[in-house]
């Protein structure tokens, strides 16, 4: 079970529409983000970080 749940306006998705779960995990665990070059909108992380 998750310890916390955050509601965000948008999830990081690739150009093919897949959710980038690895990057969500990196954010949740406070790790440095890996490759974000395949994201549709790299600015989505700003809203997630504030969330």
TrEMBL record:
Please, which domain of life does this record's source organism belong to? Bacteria
Q: What is this protein called?
A: Acetyl-coenzyme A synthetase
Name the InterPro entries on file: AMP-bd_C_sf (IPR045851)
Q: Which PANTHER family match?
A: ACETYL-COENZYME A SYNTHETASE, ACETYL-COENZYME A SYNTHETASE 1
Q: Which GO terms describe its biological process?
A: acetyl-CoA biosynthetic process
GO terms for cellular component: cytosol
What GO molecular function annotations does the UniProt record carry, in alphabetical order? acetate-CoA ligase activity
Gene3D superfamilies noted in UniProt: 3.30.300.30
